[in-house]
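job 3f2a | input accepted
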Amino acid sequence: MENLFAALNAVLSFVTPVSDFFWDFPKMFSFWKNIPVLGSFSLAIIVLVGSGIYFTFRLGFVQVRLFKAGVHTLAAKRSIKTGISPLAAFLLSTAMRVGPGNMIGVTGAIAAGGPGALFWMWISAFFGMATAFTEGTLAQLFKEKRGNTFVGGLPFYARKLCGNKVWVGTILSLVYIIYALMCLPAQGFNVVTSIGAIAGLAENVKIPLQSTFTYVVSVLVIVLVAFMAFGGIRRGSHWADILVPVMAVIYVVTALLLIISNLGSVPWFFKAVFEGAFKPEAIFGGFFGTALLQGVKRGLMSNEAGQGTITMAAASAEAHHPCEQGIISALGVFLDTHVICTMTGFIIVMAHEWAVDPAAWKAAGTYAKFLTSVNGLSPEMMQVLIQIMVSVCFCLFAYTCVIGFVSFSEISANRISSSRGFINFIRCLCIFVAAFGIACNIAGYDLSNLWAFSDLGNIIMVYCNVPMLYLGLKYVKKAAAQYSKDTEASFDSEKVLGIRTDYWDGKEK
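job 3f2a | predicted structure (509 res):
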């Protein structure tokens, strides 16, 4: 195992500089930095925020106009014949969006860019809602019916938009599967360690990594991953329906308890965020670009708008109109960033722990920073209870991410081949990789390079997905124009778009 880990770590050692290059390009060149205003932004920021702004204006602020319609769709009860309901698709996508990054990602962004990073998360997420609407609608437009399920997403609409070239869909499917496999190890370990933390807090002891308890929990987690993997998309969706509302409610209630206990700090919170957005404190680098980059970068890791990785969930729904799932995808970004991430931001900023001992704050791990902030805000008699609630949320965040990665890898695999043997091979691969991550971490190995790989995977997915959104925008605009006039209108792709699609062709479904 040690030799295998050493080989893996050596292969991935190049990832951090490569990831930094893609995120910072071309800011490392003096000719770019000398350009007024524009020189403060990397290409990644321009592509993400710029595209969100562009789609927002081209679609007439669709995230605002159709917000209420999206909420009504989520609340409506429907009888589903094929695939899953719009609400189930929303919860499945939320299982991926709302993960450990909502805690450690936001903490990392504030630690590197200051409280102002949260402001740029809000801004990028607002415009990112239009991007999510675009990709969610495209996922519905070009979805395919396979038995009693729908499959679709980036590999599917990219193939159609690129002249129905099979190799396009195949390559993008492989890119997503690789991306998911590199994210699974850390998430599997997060589940195990958080369960250990919960048990330790309940018993007031520290449970070692090498212990019977940890071994048993690890086996159970692997069994649960296998249970989800071989249950297909429907099983993953069913459990997401149960777990996502539970974890969201627990986290929001916990954060509200901390906020209510520290109401006097709320005005200072907003002051710190808005001032820090443009004039970061010296401890955080003191540069406007640092706060901006961290806000957008970590915001993307959390809400995934523009990345194309959530589009598989949007395609799996039985919608009455493609734009139904488009606006629901936008609501997912809103929930993730403007609600869940903001709760974490309140905790980190209001605790103000970085000012107590800046050197210790910088040296501490990201999750340690988060827990320190939680304890700093918690009433003394409730500290253990709140730590348990936070650990439960972290566990559920990580496990629902595992569900999402496994489900979406299966959908991507369907673009390559629908044979049972190939699908089962992908499922087994997901189980093995999750188990490998758990084993490495129990042995005390460091898989930090995998987080850098996630950063790299995120931006590569963006560069693959965003061009497809521009290619498909003309179809999204036509569909949105019809939906905006009548949200109950039936959709015929040939009449509305001027093209025939696999599902929305006007035939009896």
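job 3f2a | The radius of gyration is 22 Å.
job 3f2a | closed
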